[in-house]
Amino acid sequence: MKRKNKKEIEFICPKCKTKESIPTKIVEMLDSMDQSGDTSVPPRFDCMNCNGKMVPIYYIGVKGQVYEYHENNLK
Ligand SMILES: [Zn+2]
Question: What is the DSSP secondary-structure string of 32-51?
Fold first, then answer.
């Protein structure tokens, strides 16, 4: 069974824990524009509150890769 993204993707800033919902269309557009070919890095957005980069809590990329945020990923 294929899982799908919701209409909006919830992003979180690992530094200050700010959460923000970003329309999936915008995330996918950014994702597909990434020409680096590095699929291990999810699309990220600048945090409004600090200099951190917001990452998706759960997002299925345009190439089918799944990005999940886990608190214990933090170093
Ligand atoms: Zn932040």
Answer: HH--S--TTS---EE-SSSS
Q: Which residues pair with 19 in a beta bridge?
A: 12
Rounded Cα–Cα distance for residues 1 and 57 (Å): 21
Q: In the prediction, which pLDDT does 19 show?
A: 97
- Rounded to the nearest whole angstrom, what is the distance from the C-alpha of residue 2 to the centroid of ligand 1? 32
Gap from CA of 35 to ligand 1 centroid (Å): 26
Encoding tokens for residue 47?
């945090």
Structure confidence by residue, pLDDT tens digits, 31-63:
998 777 778 889 999 999 999 999 999 999 998
In this structure, are residues 15 and 23 in contact, taking their beta carbons and an 8 Å threshold?
no
User: What is the distance in A from the centroid of ligand 1 to the CA of 23?
Assistant: 19
